[in-house]
Amino acid sequence: MQCSVCQWIYDPAKGEPNQDVQPGTPWSDVPDNFLCPECSLGKDVFDVLATEAK
Hints:
Helices cover 0% and strands 7% of the residues. It is low in regular secondary structure. The protein has a single domain (1-54), classed as Rubrerythrin, domain 2 (Single Sheet). It has a two-stranded antiparallel sheet. The chain is globular and about 25 Å long. Pathway: Hydrocarbon metabolism; alkane degradation.
């Protein structure tokens, strides 16, 4: 998933340790109160990356 505002990419293999999202956490299991670590906007501004689309 990629932030549509700042283009930061959520990598499930890395998670987001600063927000207690452990490595291996799929986007669907990331808490709804997750904020982009770069621009501080919520999950609603994230889009599926072309490489993730099926």
